Each structure stands twice: as C-alpha cells, then as structure tokens.
# Entry
Amino acid sequence: MLGVFIFRILANIKSKAMKYLIYTAALLLTTASLTAQEIKLKDDVVYSSDKPAFSFAKKSLNNELYVYKLNTKEEVLNMIVDNNNTESKVDDGKKIVFAKQNTTIQSKTFRNRKWDFLIALLLEEKVIDLKGDINLDNLKRFKAKYDDNDVSKTMR
# Structure
C-alpha cells in the first residue's frame, strides 16, 4: 500500500533529485519501523519480541523501575520519575541510573515516555543487550546525546 502511494508521487515528480529524496525518506521510514524492539512489561518480566529478557520491580508507587538480569537480583539499571521536588510538571523528567558504572542520565525528553519505550531505546542504541551487559562506549554516547546535565551541551 505504501509502495503504491510512493510510486504515484514519484510518477508525478520531474526532478531526479526530488525523486531520490522521497525514495530515500520512504526507505528510511520503513527500515526504522522494522528495526524497533517490541518491549512488554508483564508479571515482573521484561519481554523483547515475546521472549523473556529481564526481570523488573516497580517501587515508590510505580515512580521507580529496577531492571535486573533475568531471574536474578543483579541490577542492570534503574529508572526514576524525577519531579525536582516541585509540584510543577514543566520541569519533570526521568533519570536512568547505571549504578555499577556510576552514571546517571537525567532528561526532560523522557518526561512523557513509558518505561518500555526507554528500555527499547537503550536496546536500540546498544547501551544494553538482551543479556543485561552494558556497552560503556555506547553508554557515554547515549549520555552525551540525552543528558540534560551534560556540561558540553550547556557550554555551546
């Protein structure tokens, strides 16, 4: 269906550069949707594409999520709703804490995102793998990309 729609658009466009641009954009959109991880949180287990990947526990009235290696209590990361001790929701965000790596990522970008989205994003960015191992280089890149407290972002 999408292919027919794109074909009709391309048939009406005379410029080769514009055809190339539309074709490339359509290809990227379909590729991006195919590579996304499907994450579900159910019965204290994180499922990736319907296969158990991690264990988890929610704490503090579901404002904290602790993710563990599957069937263990070895913590991979924890995520916290951060309200900055204010009643205003404008400055709220989420923190992702990697305790063993002594790294915290705090971002307002994640304010309205669910836990499963954040886990999928960490997997997609290859910060963590399905075994619960953490790639330190990708963690540093992820922190530089998303952390609101990153000094290099505020110095620009």
Q: What stands out?
A: The helical segments are 2-12, 16-35, 115-124, 136-146, 151-154. The radius of gyration is 19 Å. The beta strands are 39-42, 45-48, 51-59, 64-69, 75-82, 93-98, 103-107.
